[in-house]
Amino acid sequence: MKLQNKPIVLFSILVILFSSCSTSKNTITLSSGKKIDSRLIGVWKGSENGKQIANLTKEWEMKRNSDGTFTINFTTISDSITDEFEESGNWWIKGKKFYEYHDDSKETDIYNYTILNEEQVKFKMIKTDIDFAEENYTFVDTKISTKTNNDTKKDGLSLETALKVQNIKEEYEYVRSQCINCQVLGQALLQHKGKPYDKLTLKNGNGEEISYYFDISSFFGKW
After folding, report:
1. Which terminal residue of the chain, N or C, has fewer Cβ atoms less than 10 Å from its own Cβ?
2. What is the DSSP letter of 181?
3. Global pTM value
């Protein structure tokens, strides 16, 4: 009996070792010490209908960057009313669990994730601060691009490169460091894709006007 079981035991050990190696070769350790799965980096699309809220269709495009940051652009449709909004935060993994920290809510969602193939990954909800209509909430993301905005320079000179700040003081500290001896002409509140932004307009020594944009979603409306 022992001799007959040896091949089975050996096969099991090889399967475990192969699985471990397969996972580790895709793991990247960030400077923070957290780990990410390189197979999850890229731009992904997904959708669901009535799983979170009855009679609500939700579509999203998520960019998971190689530095552990992400942005999600949501589109929701309910009773012929369409709404769009954006969320951002950080993501990482532990084993087969996927963690998603949201800047706005300060909450972390946790999922089990399974790589289905090179272009699809399945997520199953473990923990969230939102109540879902479907108890065992699952969805599949499909990769549409390997390119992300991770290399885009955040210089604040456009809405696309707006700097995320925690308060107004940070805005003025930044513009003073970038535009020496510039005169502040005005400050304006903007809405872009469902998110609030501050726009600071300055005039430099040559009389030229320069505008800087700041993502203020982390504190807007919370004071």
Report:
1. N
2. T
3. 0.60
